[in-house]
Amino acid sequence: MSLLRSVAAKSRHAYECLVAAQKAHAKWEYEVSSFILSRRWKLLLALLVPVIVFVGLDLAFAADLPASLGGKKAYMPSFATMDMFLFSILIGLAAGLITGCIGAGGGFILTPALMSIGVKGIMSVGTDQFHIFAKAMMGTAVHRKLGNVSIPLAVCFVVGSFCGVTLGGIVNRGIYEKSPALSDAFISAVYVFMLGFLGAYALYDYLRLRRGESTGAQVQTTTSVARALQAANIPPKVRFDEDVVPGGRSISIYPVIVCGFIVGFVAAIMGVGGGFLTFPMFVYGLGVSTFTTVGTDILQIIFTAGYASIFQYAIYGFVFYTIAMGMLVGSLVGIQIGALTTKLVKGSMIRGFYAVVILAGFMNRAFALPGRLASAGYVEMSKSTSQALDLAGLVIFFVLVGIFAVWVLVSFFRGLGQIRAGAIGESAGVGH
Length: 432
Fold this sequence. Notes:
The chain has one domain (33-420). 72% of the residues lie in helices and 2% in strands.
């Protein structure tokens, strides 16, 4: 029993770390969305960035390069139908609504949602990474609002993340080249694990909130691991938190590089920004203040997501630029609506919907996984059974996400009068 309690406590701690990271990134996404939508030229630039980069890549790789270097003979240029583009806007809108309402978790549904509308897993990952990169580029002007940026810490981290992204990209492309079905199965399995973990604890949090219990105590920031790493005299060392602690803190560059490697690898595999890992690693593993962590993490995302999306996926033909733009537009609007809606509905209900949506993503990939494994030849299953499971997962996912989105939009438009009257405005935000 003591072992089970220990495992449960550690799992709970891990979940709280992940949620704290997601909240920090949700705040950043809200600030970025507000900044872009308040400056129309920025919104136009946000739409043009993917096109500009796409044209540049087209010119750069127009020659007959070897397939291993991303020559066009490796994979044909990707294109999207109008239906897929419209779906991408709706997917971005739904993710934005979740991020704005909950202050966490919206980005986790993007890759599974793209896979559900027929985009290959590796294409979904590359497209999601490109969408994150475009958003990060547009949000550079708001970094100063979100925390102190430690340039030395970010540089060391990016050195590691570039190595991790490179390995993650090689792994994803290698699996795809061996078997596209196995690639989809691999990415689905990763999301089954991650969304299952997040969804189970999100549901647990909701039930505790319904019972009126506390949502959990704040975990001690400076852990024994962080103190030991900072005390270790292994040069060269990097200084940080000078504005937070008198004299600042210092740590060897090697743990920072290792953290960057892990985050980069996971980001390249899943297509996410990686911040959900950076935050707990920095704060609880390295002992960096949350103030410095947020600013530094957002800065590194530009380089990590840019390198991953362009040099590990785009040049190999694994990015849907049109869909990336659709997700960007949808998410910018969705975040704003979601953030305002938090002032119109009960927080407990929002948490409940969040848990349901995350579990819907889990079920979507879990239902799709057997069919992908069967296509790759690892399990035996009839095609009709595989299609039935796929359809069930698809229906569950889009019905539940659709219900959540409709509920938020209805709540928003019902309260539009209050918002226009100024009863709700500056106080609205992310993560309530």
